[in-house]
Design a protein that fits this description.
Number of strands: 6
Distance between the termini: 62 Å
Number of domains: 2
Number of helices: 19
Order of helices and strands: HHEHHHHHHHHEHHHHHHHEEHEHE
Shape: elongated
Structural class: mainly alpha
Strand order of the largest sheet: 3-4-5-6
Length: 494
């Protein structure tokens, strides 16, 4: 299907843009708070993602903004670097790296990451989000250990009400309208309850329990938004953070875009390399303006599809509305209780690490469960990039050993000859199995080694040559089919 202009469906896209904006508001604020950064940084990221990405991308329905999948990275790297300003520099550099990925047409390589590793990464992110939001849900400024003795009853009531709405939503008549956002209802109802609690001595919330967006328009916003510290460009730790953001954001983006393409009623396909260019430009601009790193995000994109979006105009319009909200509706945003956003994020976290995900991995067997579990453990113990690398290495090792285990099968043909047939590639990992099978061949028999159509590496060829040299002593007559042993020296040439 030929590409259409982003202005081809203005009526549908303007309506969808409003819906996506209403979904994005609580998520942008909540993710920023979960990352431990000013809420305005989440709104800046949402606005930049909506405007910049939609102008460059050719993905008609995906929406870009701050993502829950990057929460663990932001939390860890801000702490490692020692300041948000240095992390903003890393975000800007990450955007440059992503743009480079797009220029080099690296989008196809995201498919190399095993699905078990991706699931483990997302589950670890979900666990991180939940434990970071539990204190906020109890109205506590601090960590889990600060909860006893500091619980705020009003915050707990708002959290419980919010979770009931979020998890009970699908049982209400409103759930039939796919474009309605339960998160928005949570924000509205919790905001109303918080106002009602204002005069109550025990339930009333203090200023620290609400969102804090700068008041005073553009000048106040410019003064309050953090700025990147360009001295960090020469710091190795900043580049490590940039690489981490670039790699993880690219993977999450490409996976989200693929998922959204499947929802597209017009059955269009988004070019992955163009998407990397768009995401790179968005992250560079977001970091420069004091915003969080961004990716294509499935929740907002799904809302876009459900609301009838057809082209990139919907994402662009939602970005414009976010700018308007920051500039002209900060007072309203500051009435949103943090406990309500914590409930939204707890639901997001549980969606990333559902119990069904763990039971599925167990059911798939050890070779899928082990990389999944190792990725979760490594992400929680170290950081996201190290965890993903460990998971990828583990996945490769398990695949290789699984492949090596059944590389050779032994049968007996109608003439009584023993047949050793390669049914998979014969690599150095197969050597223990091959040695065992060759040792089990009875003396004084005829042996056929069949490798036609399979790859056999030099290690295995030298092993077979050594066996052929020793075969006459055991009175074994050997026939080798499909394997060139002309370059293989018995004993490896030693």
């Amino acid at each position: 299907m030929p590409r259409t202009s982003m202005f081809a469906y203005p009526r549908q896209d303007l309506v969808a843009g409003i819906v996506v904006f209403l979904v994005a508001i609580p998520l942008c604020l909540g993710i920023a708070i979960a990352c431990g950064v000013p809420p305005v940084s989440g709104l800046v990221a949402g606005a930049v993602g909506g405007i910049v990405a939609s102008l460059i991308s050719r993905s008609p329905l995906s929406v870009t903004g701050p993502a829950a999948g990057l929460t663990a990275i932001v939390l860890t790297q801000v702490e490692v670097l020692g300041s948000l300003e240095l992390f903003l520099t890393a975000t800007l550099l990450a955007g440059g790296l992503q743009f480079g990925f797009g220029v080099l047409k690296a989008g196809r390589y995201a498919a190399l990451v095993p699905s078990a590793v991706i699931k483990g990464m997302l589950a670890a992110i979900g666990i991180t989000i939940i434990w970071k939001q539990i204190p906020v849900a109890f109205g506590v400024n601090g960590g889990l250990t600060d909860i006893p003795g500091n619980i705020h009853p009003g915050a707990v009531v708002l959290t419980v009400v919010s979770l009931v709405i979020l998890y009970g939503w699908r049982h209400t008549p409103l759930a039939r309208f796919g474009f309605l956002s339960p998160a928005l209802f949570v924000v509205l109802i919790a905001g109303g309850l918080a106002a009602a609690f204002g005069s109550h001595p025990q339930l009333g919330l203090s200023g620290s329990h609400f969102v804090d967006v700068p008041l005073g328009g553009l000048s106040a916003l410019a003064a309050a938004v953090p700025r990147p510290d360009f001295a960090g460009i020469t710091m190795p730790a900043v580049w490590v953070a940039a690489i981490t953001v670039a790699v993880v954001a690219s993977i999450e983006t490409l996976l989200s875009v693929q998922a959204v393409d499947r929802l597209d009623p017009l059955r269009r396909t988004s070019p992955p390399d163009r998407e990397l260019l768009a995401q790179g430009a968005s992250n560079a601009v977001s970091g420069f303006l004091g915003g969080l790193p961004v990716t294509a995000v499935i929740v907002r994109s799904g809302a876009n599809v459900a609301a009838g979006g057809r082209e990139r105009l919907s994402a662009f319009f939602h970005g414009i509305l976010l700018v308007g909200a920051v500039l002209f509706a900060a007072a309203l945003l500051n009435r949103i209780p943090l406990a309500a956003l914590a409930a939204v994020l707890i639901q997001v976290g549980f969606n990333l690490c559902k119990p069904a995900l763990f039971t599925t991995q167990v059911r798939l067997g050890f070779t899928q469960l082990a990389p999944f579990a190792l990725t979760i453990t490594a992400v929680l113990a170290f950081d996201l990039l190290k965890g993903v690398i460990i998971g990828i290495v583990a996945g490769m090792v398990f695949v290789l050993f699984q492949n090596a285990r059944g590389a050779l099968v032994r049968t007996v043909d109608p003439n009584g000859a023993t047949v050793l047939r390669f049914r998979r590639d014969g690599t150095f990992l197969s050597k223990p199995t091959i040695v065992s099978e060759l040792a089990a061949v009875p003396d004084g028999t005829r042996l056929i080694i069949e490798g036609t159509g399979e790859y056999v590496d030099q290690d295995v060829k030298e092993l077979l040559s050594t066996f052929l040299e020793d075969a006459p002593r055991r009175d074994i007559l050997v026939t080798v089919n499909g394997i060139d042993l002309s370059t293989a020296v018995a004993g490896g040439g030693h």
